[in-house]
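I'm curious: can you give me some protein's one-letter sequence along with its backbone structure tokens because I've never seen that pairing?
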Amino acid sequence: MERVPPSERTKAALRSLLREGGPDVKSDLMRLSVRRVVEEALEAAAQDLLERGYYERRGPEGEGYRNGYREGRLKTSEGEVAYAVPQVREVSAEPINRIRQAVSGRTEELERLAVEMFARGCSYRDIEETFRGEDGRSLLSRTALTQVTEALWKEYEEFATRDLSEVRPLYLFMDGLAEKLRVGSPREAVLAAWAITWEGEKVLLHVAPGTKESTECCRDFFQDMKRRGLSDPLLVATDGAPGLRRAAEECFPTALRQRCLAHPDEEHHREAARGRGG
């Protein structure tokens, strides 16, 4: 196998999941994304300590060297996540150990970053806020923060612009999720689109901030996927949100439409309440 850092192997696994789908894409995506964030941060810290990149050789007077990896583990809402921890020799591993200790108690923040990475990309500030010590100081240098931000932003760009023409959607599912995408901010709506393909795979197609109450916002969301080559599905499933319904009818006029019974809208709740009251 080609000698590559674990963060690159995790990146390849993410790409494979997004391209080929699987039986539990949401759970797998969350775990892999959290792993990717942690491994990128640890790898950047190791490069800072050794003052050279993964593929750069140790100089004749260079201090410290890599000594493989060991496994770390995190408990998340989607189950346990194993990640690779770089080992170093002849230099203090304390910066790496501090990051490990910090992430063990910040799974909620890491999961937020995992969602944001695909919804609109992670900013420098997002990474900096997540990787702060208890004393408020950053656990990563400016160089390391920039390195992690650039790597995760590239992940977002590749996901948000990838070609969807090879996806053959049989069923298209649309939903609006409430997620916290910024530190200290309230939860906000995130639109997510999933497809069940003719081959029977579940594939995540698109994620973006928005509101399912706005027809214009939902229309832009659907049209973005169509511009990238997504063909019309046989059936589109949405909840009862008016904006989402109208946009689906406009953008996929030939598709059958089904209301998602697992996510009834507020109007449905009001009708049910009136029925109970009568």
About this structure: The CA atoms of residues 83 and 228 lie 33 Å apart. The two ends are 69 Å apart (CA to CA). The longest strand covers residues 65-76. Residues 25-50 form the longest helix (26 residues).
